[in-house]
Amino acid sequence: MNMNLKLLLPGLLCATMLVGCTGVRQESERAARRDQQAVADVYRPTNQPPTLPHLSTNSGLGDFLRYAMLNQPKVEAAYYDWAASVERITTARSLPDPRLTFEMDISDALMSLMPGLMVEFPGPGKLKPRAAVASAESSAKYFAFETAAFQSAFDVKKAYYQLHFLQEKIRVNQQTLTLNADLERLALAQNAAGKVTLQDVLRAQIEQERLTTEIANLEDSQDPLLAQLKAALGLTAFQPNPPLPGQFESTPLDVTSDRLFATALQRNPRLRAMGAEVRMADAAITLARKGRVPDFNVGLEVDVKASPVIWTPQAGMTLPIWRDKIAAEIAAAQAGKRSAEARLSAEQIGLAVDFAAKLFMFRESSRNLALLQDRLLPKQRQSLEVARAGYVAGQIDFFNLIDAEQTLLRFAVAEVEARTQRELALAELSLVIMGVPPAGAPVLLQQAPSPPDTKK
Fold it and tell me: Which residues contact 282 (CB under 8 A, 6 or more apart)?
């Protein structure tokens, strides 16, 4: 029996050594881990949330964008989905775990005692396409994370611009209210001189009541916009409201570039995610074709009860005889690739539509802004002064005077709305459509590859 124990020791030693084995990393796995580590150093150092920017009224818009990208739970969920997919590359390219076996023959007494070790080997060429599928999936998950980060930045910008221009609307209405109070005093003076009836004074007071209510409604509408900004920053309902930036910042983007749409095709993270899905489907076809290749297993059992010791080598292989199953797997993988290619083409078409729509919105709002600032507003201010003088001289009635004032208000509000639409179009073009990362974004700052040629 002592001899048998001595024979068991080498086997147990081999098993213990196997516990510490590691597989061979492929280049795609190494690249994915480098990328994940580069992002983690900024986004989740030591797997913990980083120090967030301190937000105050003096903070720039960039601080608010970084705060959102680092703190928004949707971005965090996408990040850990990507991190999990990077780990799945290792799982996909690894060999199956070896199996320790143990067999005994017992009659009236223990007749044989056979410990053993079995190792399975996938057929030649199977591990590489498995790793390729997992790597392409990881790439798609990264671009989903990038999309979430850009979307969180856009949500902050959208609420930021709407809040800023809401304040502008309130300011315009308050200025008009002050102007209307002047018109009321003018109507009172004219009425005291017996030149007009009390109806003019009442009209001025009615307009003041309307403007006062409009200002109250605008001030009240700040709460839902502030809630949107708070949500975009990833703050819960129980956390204090964020401060509002004291200075307005526009989105820098050269919309005159001829290569603007080509850049969008290269950088858009949704397109790049779908390009990764096409590569994943391509690798899945290769893997499905490997279904014709058998898998192998080898092993060794030792009967330590026998004298002399009996060594029993074992070997086996799978028999891929179900050709219809293999053909179905290949056909399913090919259909999956065609589906991924179609989704990529549809997204490219959709991107072109979105790009054209936002570019039109930018051009339209820019033209309207120039019209209002350069021509309509100056002329309408002049028209109001002429109307005021005409009313004092008794040449026009109060209705025309108040109409001139209301027209000036409409133009001033339209100017604010045109600036709002212009900034929102710029923000969406830059972040959502073109995927241009803002300063400090926790994304990979690398040259975007061209979308894969899906017509090959």
Answer: 136, 337
DSSP for 352-386 reads HHHHHHHHHHHHHHHHHHHHIIIIIHHHHHHHHHH
CA distance 168 to 413: 8
Residue whose tokens read 């040629």: 453
* pTM reported for the whole predicted model: 0.86
Among residues 331, 340, 332, 333, which one has the least CA distance to residue 129? 333
Rounded to whole angstroms, how far apart are CA atoms 9 and 344?
Answer: 58
pLDDT at 153: 95
**How many other C-beta atoms are found inside a 10 Å radius of the C-beta of residue 77?**
13
Q: What confidence score (pLDDT) does residue 140 get?
A: 95
Q: What are 440's two structure tokens? A: 């400090």
CATH code for the part of the protein at 62-72+146-292+325-433: 1.20.1600.10
Q: Where are the domains of the chain?
A: 62-72+146-292+325-433
- Alpha helix ranges (H) inside 94-197: 127-192
Other C-beta atoms within 10 Å of 76: how many?
Answer: 18
Question: What percentage of the chain has pLDDT greater than the value 90?
Answer: 70
Contacts of 30 (CB under 8 A, 6+ apart): none
Mean pLDDT score of the chain, rounded to an integer?
Answer: 89
Are 83 and 36 spatial neighbours (Cβ–Cβ below 8 Å)? yes
**What's the DSSP call for residue 396?**
S
Residue 215, pLDDT > 70, answer yes
Cβ-proximal residues to 109 (8 Å cutoff; 6+ apart), any chain: none
Residue 177 to residue 333: CA distance in whole angstroms: 68
Interval 99-137: pLDDT, tens: 888 888 777 777 788 888 899 999 998 999 999 999 999
Report, as an integer, the average pLDDT of 33-47: 93
pLDDT surpasses 50 at 144: yes
In whole angstroms, what separates CA 233 from the centre of its chain?
Answer: 14
210 to 12, 176, 448: CA distances (angstroms): 90, 11, 54
Question: C-alpha angle with apex 253: 252 to 257, nearest 5 degrees?
Answer: 155
